[in-house]
Specification:
heterodimer; A: Amidase signature (AS) enzymes; 15 helices; 37% helix; globular; B: Arc Repressor Mutant, subunit A; 3 domains; glutaminyl-tRNA synthase (glutamine-hydrolyzing) activity (chain A)
């Protein structure tokens, strides 16, 4: 243990509790680490040093006064720039929102503030969360701390990279088609996409409303569970928020996998997977078996339609959700537009990047008169079939195990000109979003070249605690999370 | 074929603002007339990241309306997004109900010259209003301003089938519908402030045809008069087009209030493609049996039923009954007064005459009346007995209206009681006849028209307080009739 920033969130929380370190010291360590490595990693769009230190001082003061504290009080974290932060510029990594300072906090941001976590800054992402490599950020790409020539994945790549590079102890991301799990897998971190409706979307800039879900990203399963418990709350401001109790994911975390039935979907182990990823996954499955789990061969027959379904539905919703960025009320407005139509076309033409425009056009087309039945409606029907696939399988098994990403981190620039191959990065993660299920990625090994590989666990609705327990059983057998990125 | 060989076909789409305190998807006030953008929050401003939360009162009002119109209230309906760009539409889409509205297939009975007519109501759906673009204020600076106070105000759209056959029927339908909504307490019926608005779909077809002609949608009809004028103008225009060998284009037309014409706003070619799809931020709208039942139980007696009852219970003519039942507070007050009088028709005359005039002139709502039903009953009884004349009674009512004082006190103070003393009246009659010997001779010579002159002189001498019956009786006696 070389430095304060190498601690897990729970380890730091213990040291804060024993007064061995203060929140201000931890926050300063985090800020110093950012100053040291972020010029190379480029995970942060904005660092809020005064805000973070003020919050850390407040946490220390509460601790000194003996006030009630949350489990992670004083532990500094970062936020994907998709979360609205009152008084702190929020751009969703888009030019169209440049200069936008929200007048209110997202519900999850409020919850973290109430729990006393210093919010260190806003993390880079693919513009409006559209992308799998962070390269569609309007500002700059983020680099993978394990190999700076490679992508950390996307769209929560900034969050993953910052956690992996020890710049923050944990972070929040959002997952629409795999945007938490895929970058977690590519950076040796843990990422949890909760059940749809488990975590409030209020104040989270919408990409695809029926798929988006905020979630925690951290270095260990325990940290992920602790962070998850702070944000899993029913929110009356989100009509799709589930009115269920906050789960206790920490109590049974060490209970192991003995007696659990784990489904291995044959469609997820088909062609296209990197051989090193495939080999590592097989070894991991054997390990789970040794730990007492029973592996069950299962089938999710509609998996092959998931990618097309996802891109139709997500793009349709995005085309509508992004209509509000019109230059009328906030963000950037085209300077020399004459007349209303020009104002719209120029503002949107200048403000949105290529990937965002591609998806707006795709969604607009899919929803337009004469095509709705053939595309959007058809996709909704297939979505139902995909959901039913999972419902059937979960009658036989307790969770599903698969790779998270078909390949390890790829080179920056390798796929930017080939959107379709970029879309294939989400092939294992997005069926989970279509079905609204919880999904988790946990580190399960490294390639010969030292690139992280992730294992994905999918569960029944609201069964996050079991996924965390399985992930923890696996994590306990390894020291992956102790291995620091070479940045 | 002349105009008279064509049949006009009309369907109405009515937008009624629901009388809720707060907006449909957030807690902002719906009060009219606030400073621009005063009643706004991140949700109704369409800020990034915001989500709608449904105001349950809106659902109650829609269910209430649906039940009153005999609609099927759907246990499950669905919110949709209607996508289009406009500066006063903050999210770039309107949340509305599209293929699965909350209520379907009801009806409204109206009166026509040829009797009762049942107009089918195809659907009732809920939606949010948009904001308002203001072009005048900053036009000199080349700017337009946007006021989003209205954005998110709850609207109910009531769509009729094309069952209406002329402008008068359309106006009647709109009036009857307005009265029902106001009765239900779901809408204020205010056309001027735009809380009750109407679009009309108008087409013409040769009489006897069973196929409807191409329709045009008329917008901007914010009064009953404009509705009538616009439909009549548009029907004639379409007949002209057909007569001259053209064809009517499907388009949206605006009623130009100043010129009294409809003009094209947009054609089918540039009609919007709204790209409707189910709103992912809102779950389907569920109406429970309990909500439906409680709304059904609390439905008030509606204008038409009340009118029928007024005719049977009070023996009133249809005309009176309709006016008295058009507004619920007036009907309620009438019924309260009727308990204190013996002749409901006479009461109705006072309501339709003097009281209506006072209410209108003073702009006073029924709820603010200062006198009680018992006081009005007492006044009527006083007039009936002849203690005051009908004319003096009007003065008394005026004073009651302004001050709420007792009629007896007002009569006493103003000395309005009629003189019914035979001796006193006889003295005046004798005096007048003595002073006008010439006129008396003319009368006796057969010029009976002079009689009115004598009455007038007697009344003038008595300052209007002579009992008219007694005056007549004595005059005729003295004149030897």
């Amino acid at each position: 243990m070389s430095s304060l920033t190498d601690l897990s969130m729970l380890e730091l929380a213990a040291k804060l509790a024993s007064r061995e370190v203060s929140s201000v010291e931890a926050t300063q360590a985090s800020l110093q680490r950012i100053a040291q490595v972020d010029p190379k990693v480029r995970a942060f769009l904005r660092v809020d040093e005064p805000g973070a230190l003020k919050s850390a001082e407040a946490s220390d003061a509460r601790r000194k006064a003996g006030s009630p504290l949350s489990a992670l009080d004083g532990v500094p974290v970062g936020l994907k720039d998709i979360f609205l932060t009152e008084g702190v510029e929020t751009t969703c990594a888009s030019r169209v929102l440049e200069g936008f300072v929200p007048p209110y906090d997202a519900t999850v941001v409020r919850l973290l503030k109430e729990a006393g976590l210093p919010l260190v800054g806003k993390l880079n992402m693919d513009e409006f969360a559209m992308g799998s490599s962070n390269e569609s950020s309007a500002y700059f790409p983020t680099h993978n701390p394990w190999d700076l020539t490679r992508t950390p994945g996307g769209s929560s790549g900034g969050s993953a990279a910052a956690v992996a590079a020890r710049e923050v102890f944990g972070a929040l991301g959002t997952d629409t088609g795999g945007s938490i799990r895929q970058p977690a897998a590519l950076t040796n971190t843990v990422g949890l996409k909760p059940t749809y409706g488990r975590v409030s979307r209020y104040g989270v800039i919408a990409f695809a409303s029926s798929l988006d879900q905020p979630g925690p990203m951290a270095r260990t399963v325990g940290d992920t569970a602790a962070l998850f418990q702070l944000i899993a709350r029913h929110d009356p401001l989100d009509s799709t928020s589930a009115d269920v109790e906050t789960p206790d994911c920490l109590t049974g975390l060490e209970d192991g996998v003995r007696g659990l039935k784990l489904g291995v979907p044959r469609e997820y182990f088909a062609e296209g997977m990197d051989p090193e990823v495939a080999g590592t996954l097989r070894a991991s499955l054997e390990e789970l078996e040794k730990l007492g789990a029973t592996l069950v061969d299962v089938s999710l027959p509609h998996t092959k339609y998931a990618l097309a379904t996802y891109y139709l539905l997500a793009s349709s919703e995005a085309s509508s959700n992004l209509a509000r960025y019109d230059g009328i009320r906030y963000g950037q407005r085209a300077k020399d537009a004459r007349g209303l139509k020009e104002l719209y076309t120029q503002t949107r033409g200048q403000g949105f990047g290529a990937e965002v425009k591609r998806r707006i056009m795709l969604g607009t087309y899919a929803l337009s008169a004469g095509y709705y039945d053939a595309y959007y409606l058809r996709a909704q029907k297939v979505r139902t079939l995909i959901r039913e696939d999972f419902t059937k399988v979960f009658q036989q098994v307790d969770a599903i195990v698969s790779p998270t990403s078909p390949v390890p981190a790829f080179k920056l620039g390798a796929k930017v000109d080939d959107p379709l191959s970029m879309y294939l990065m989400d092939v294992y993660t997005l069926p989970c979003n279509l079905a609204g299920l919880p999904g988790l990625s946990v580190p399960c090994g490294f390639t010969q070249a030292g690139l992280p590989i992730g294992m994905q666990l999918l569960g029944r609705p609201f069964d996050e605690a079991r996924l965390l327990r399985i992930a923890r059983a696996f994590e306990r057998e390894h020291d992956f999370f102790r291995r620091a990125a070479p940045v | 074929m002349p105009l008279s060989d064509f049949q006009t076909v009309i369907g109405l789409e009515v937008h009624a603002q629901l009388l809720t305190q707060s907006k449909i998807f957030c807690g902002c006030s719906t009060a009219f007339g606030a400073e621009p953008n005063h009643h706004t929050c991140p949700v109704c401003l369409g800020m990034p990241g915001v989500l709608p939360v449904l105001n349950q009162r809106v659902v109650e009002y829609a269910v209430r309306t649906g039940l009153a119109l005999g609609c099927t209230v759907k246990a499950t309906s669905v919110w949709s997004r209607k996508n289009y760009f406009y500066p006063d539409l903050p999210k770039g889409y309107q949340i509305t109900q599209y293929d699965q509205p909350i209520c379907e297939w009801g009806e409204l009975v109206i009166d026509t010259p040829s009797g009762e007519k049942t107009v089918r109501v195809r659907r009732i759906h809920l939606e949010e209003d948009a904001g308002k673009s203001v072009h005048d204020a900053a036009a000199s600076a080349g700017q337009s301003l946007v006021d989003l106070n209205r954005a998110g105000v709850p609207l109910m759209e009531i769509v009729s089938e094309p069952d209406l056959r002329d402008a008068d029927e359309a106006v009647e339908y709109l009036k009857v519908l307005r009265d029902v909504l106001v009765y239900l307490g779901v809408n204020d019926g205010n056309l001027e402030e735009g809380s009750f608005r109407c679009d009309a779909n108008v087409s013409v077809m040769p009489k006897g045809s069973t196929t409807y002609g191409q329709r045009c949608e008329l917008k901007n009809l914010n009064s009953f008069r404009f509705l009538k004028q616009a439909i009549e103008y548009e029907a004639a225009r379409q007949v002209d087009v057909l007569e001259s060998g053209g064809k009517v284009d499907q388009e949206t037309r605006l009623w130009d209030v100043n010129k009294g014409v409809t003009r094209s706003m947009r054609s089918k070619e540039d009609a919007h493609d709204y790209r409707y799809f189910p709103e992912p931020d809102l779950p389907p709208l569920l109406v429970s049996d309990a909500l439906r039942d409680s709304q059904r139980q609390s439905l008030p007696e509606l204008p038409r039923a009340k009118r029928t009852r007024f005719m049977s219970e009070y023996g009133l003519p249809a005309y009176d009954a309709r006016i008295l039942t058009a507004e619920r507070p007036l009907a309620d007050f009438f019924e309260a007064c009727a308990k204190h009088v013996s002749d409901a028709k006479k009461l109705s005359n006072w309501f339709l005459g003097e009281l209506s005039r006072l209410l209108k002139e003073e702009g006073t709502p029924i709820s603010a009346l200062r006198f009680t039903p018992a006081q009005l009953g007492e006044l009527l009884a006083t007039v009936e007995k002849g203690t005051v004349s009908a004319n003096a009674g009007k003065d008394v009512l005026g004073e009651m209206f302004r001050t709420g004082r007792q009629p007896a006190d007002i009569i006493a103070e103003k000395g309005l009681a009629q003189v019914s003393d035979v001796g006193a009246v006889e003295a005046v009659v004798d005096d007048i006849l003595a002073k006008n010997v010439g006129e008396v001779e003319k009368y006796k010579a057969g010029k009976k028209s002079v009689y009115g002159f004598f009455v007038g002189q007697v009344m003038k001498a008595m300052k209007g307080k002579g009992n008219p019956g007694l005056v007549n009786e004595l005059l005729k006696k003295k004149l030897g009739e």
